[in-house]
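Exercise 7. Given the encoded structure of a 305-residue chain, write a plausible sequence.
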């Protein structure tokens, strides 16, 4: 990878390292993109800009084109939490070390620094975050898709930037990431405002981005086909059946694909409409082998992020 840019920011995907202490999820029937099944060489391939053979840029010559440009690095936080001096209490210091040990790549980014100001809020919030991030029955790939959709729906640029790197880490292609509708971002509005002045008319670029507002239909139209393409052209980056049977392996791939698509559509509908239809609930439950508790997990992930 290229070295970090001059505007290096802790929320940038450049902070990603090659290993994680928290990707060792429990073994599952369909271990989708479980990092324990990926060799070091394969993991490095996944993280490279041309990792996904389905990406339209994979075979392009190196022209220094960036696969993804973080948008949150210019934001200036108003408050980052209690200062690291003698005013920090022992309880805050203990919590701080606990957060850093469980978030080796992202540390106190996002709300964790400000949460330290109120330990009674910070402690249970950190615990909930750890559980929904690492201890659900969802694979890391499924979790990252839900988190990216949530960040996109609420135009949370920092959260989206952080999880772009995490998504690449578990094999989600650049095409899928770029296809997620995000609408007009705050950073784009500020940039347009600085160029045109306060009270200016809406720009053409803003109008075009408004056509990309997050909604269920846009996810169905733009994201789902690319996810299907990744599964159809899978080269073992996505599914790693433990049984050597080709027939069972094919069955596992089909079930993994249907499960992932059902999770994405359930999350997108919930995010777009603040509810899901009876039809969507029933279809998702079928894809999840009748497990209502997995939908509780998906909803909890969305609620937390």
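Solution.
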């Amino acid at each position: 990878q290229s070295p970090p840019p001059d505007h290096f920011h802790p929320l940038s995907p450049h902070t990603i390292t090659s290993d994680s202490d928290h990707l060792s999820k429990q073994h599952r029937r369909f271990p989708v993109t479980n990092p324990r099944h990926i060799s070091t060489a394969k993991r490095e391939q996944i993280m490279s800009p041309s990792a996904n053979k389905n990406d339209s840029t994979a075979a392009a010559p190196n022209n220094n084109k960036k696969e993804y440009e973080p948008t949150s690095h210019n934001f200036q936080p108003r408050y980052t939490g209690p200062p690291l001096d003698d005013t920090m209490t022992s309880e805050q210091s203990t919590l701080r070390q606990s957060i850093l040990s469980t978030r080796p790549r992202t540390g106190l980014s996002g709300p964790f620094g400000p949460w330290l100001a109120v330990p009674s809020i910070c402690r249970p919030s950190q615990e909930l975050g750890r559980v929904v991030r690492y201890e659900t029955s969802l694979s890391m790939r499924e979790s990252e898709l839900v988190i990216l959709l949530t960040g996109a729906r609420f135009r949370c640029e920092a959260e989206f930037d952080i999880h772009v790197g995490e998504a690449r880490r578990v094999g989600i292609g650049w095409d899928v990431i770029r296809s997620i509708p995000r609408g007009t971002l705050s950073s784009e509005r500020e940039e347009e405002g600085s160029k045109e002045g306060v009270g200016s008319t809406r720009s053409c670029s803003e109008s075009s981005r408004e056509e990309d507002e997050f909604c269920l239909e846009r996810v169905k139209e733009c994201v789902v086909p690319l996810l299907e393409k990744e599964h159809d052209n899978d080269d073992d980056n996505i599914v790693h059946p433990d049984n050597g049977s080709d027939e069972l392996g094919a069955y596992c791939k089909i079930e993994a694909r249907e499960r992932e698509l059902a999770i994405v559509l359930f999350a997108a509908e919930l995010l777009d409409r603040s509810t899901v239809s009876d039809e969507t609930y029933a279809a998702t439950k079928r894809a999840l082998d009748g497990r209502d508790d997995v939908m509780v997990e998906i909803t909890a992930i969305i609620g937390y992020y």
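Remark. DSSP finds 13 helices and no strands in the chain. Students should compare their own answers with the one above.
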